[in-house]
Amino acid sequence: MRNYFIAGNWKMHKTTGEAVELAKALVEDLKDGKNKYMIAPPFTALDAVSKVVKGTNVMLGAQNMSTEEQGAHTGEVSVLMLKDLGVQIVILGHSERRHIYKEDDAMINKKVRLALKHGLEVDLCIGELLEEREAGKAEAVCERQLREGLAGVTAEEMKLVTIAYEPVWAIGTGKTATPDDAETIHYYCRSVLADMYGKEVADSVVIQYGGSMKAENAKALLEKPDIDGGLIGGASLKVETFSPIAKFNS
Ligand code: PGA
Question: 81, 180, 191, 241 — which has fewest CB within 10 A?
């Protein structure tokens, strides 16, 4: 029913030459892989990596985009520019965008709708802070981020949407949510999606886990019924650490 979707978020790593080298190695290593794959290099390497992944089973992702199509927005990158480079999917609402760059749900929603309007797939990241988890608010935070991030998005457009649940306290810290803790939130998020769009749509939406996912813990997480993939940061920067996750089921 749902295909596993394993994605690499390279964040602010890799010069163009390094990015091309890694992309080439991954394309070769994953060519017989049976899951859906995406790599998201920094903006500066998108053009070069686009040429490497074109026509392969590895999708090209971007890590962010502007709320606007074009205009006086110094330093921003628009959806039109991403499409022009062959980008197929864009990560939006990553916790580093939310917390370091103060992007709120309304801004993220504007980006989500703009990407979908232009036919790009969206990987919408949600997830609670440690203090929110400790206060028993993890579900409520994720629900708000889902409802506000997806406001105005139609059931039809949901075919282009992936959700990534990334508890902020697990990102880049080496701390992973236990498979059971992650499954609890994934299951809850799917019930929120069912309330918003109906069960059929909710059952078809891929919900990835992100936060210190690595070869050693991927299988136990991905075997949970509502965990359909991974959004991987640190472990996506080398073939030796990304491929075993990408091929966990082969
Ligand atoms: P991490 O990052 O795998 O390094 O924890 C995940 C992410 O931020 O998407």
Answer: 180
Pocket of ligand 1 (CB under 6 A): 9, 166, 171-172, 210-213, 231-235
Residues 64-79 have pLDDT tens digits of 999 999 999 999 999 9
For the chain, the first-to-last Cα distance in angstroms comes to 18
CA–CA separation, 148 and 109 (whole Å): 7
Contact of 210 with 188, CB cutoff 8 Å: no
- Whether the per-residue pLDDT at 111 is higher than 90: the answer is yes
CA pair distance 169, 131, nearest whole angstrom: 9
**Please, what sign has the CA dihedral across residues 4, 211, 9, 64?**
positive
Tokens 């990407």 belong to 115
pTM equals 0.98
Span from the CA of 212 to the centroid of ligand 1 (angstroms): 6
Residue the block writes with tokens 């136990």:
220
Alpha-carbon Rg for the chain, nearest whole angstrom, is 17
CA distances from residue 170 to 144, 151, 164, 176 in whole angstroms, order as listed: 20, 27, 13, 5
What is the token pair recorded at 202? 């909710």
